[in-house]
User: Which sequence fits this backbone?
């Protein structure tokens, strides 16, 4: 358990967790929500998929065949649908659920991207996936059943949605994107 008193926020917590996990020299690093929307029953499938295949990142997807989005309201489903389509289009992602936070990574992925993470808020989910995509890591998905949160409340509102629309465009054309291209050519 990593308790943090400073640098609050989903993105800062994720980056701190990634850094801490690397201290244990793991083979894989699993990320999931703690509000009971991600059922741990799918962890074994995620581990098997990443272990037995030439894959670097496995996403738990509610939108691929066999996946389910349970108990969420109509407006949240519409927002998720539009967000998925927007992220896939603008960022060029080739996954069915780019908004999922249920993921498993090979250690080498986190080692290469953790120092590039800048988001301190939930936008980090998009940032991490895009950086993995730009590094040409092999990304795959397994179907999961996503349930509406059992604990806590969503901070998502209209103003955050508008801000995220612009942040996606910035991320797509940011200096980080150019730095990744330069890094690839210098290797």
Assistant:
């Amino acid at each position: 358990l990593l308790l943090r008193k400073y640098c609050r926020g989903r993105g800062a917590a994720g980056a701190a967790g990634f850094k801490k996990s690397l201290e244990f020299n793991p083979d894989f690093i699993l990320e999931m929500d703690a509000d009971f929307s991600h059922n741990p029953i799918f962890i074994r499938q995620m581990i098997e998929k990443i272990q037995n295949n030439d894959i670097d990142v496995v996403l738990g997807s509610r939108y691929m065949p066999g996946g389910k989005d349970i108990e969420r309201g109509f407006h949240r489903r519409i927002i998720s649908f539009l967000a998925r389509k927007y992220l896939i289009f603008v960022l060029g992602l080739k996954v069915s659920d780019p908004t999922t936070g249920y993921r498993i990574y090979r250690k080498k992925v986190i080692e290469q991207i953790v120092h590039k993470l800048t988001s301190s808020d939930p936008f980090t989910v998009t940032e991490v996936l895009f950086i993995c995509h730009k590094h040409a890591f092999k990304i795959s998905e397994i179907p999961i059943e996503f349930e509406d949160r059992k604990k806590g409340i969503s901070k998502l509102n209209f103003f955050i949605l508008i801000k995220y629309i612009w942040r996606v465009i910035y991320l797509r054309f940011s200096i980080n994107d150019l730095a990744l291209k330069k890094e690839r050519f210098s290797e």
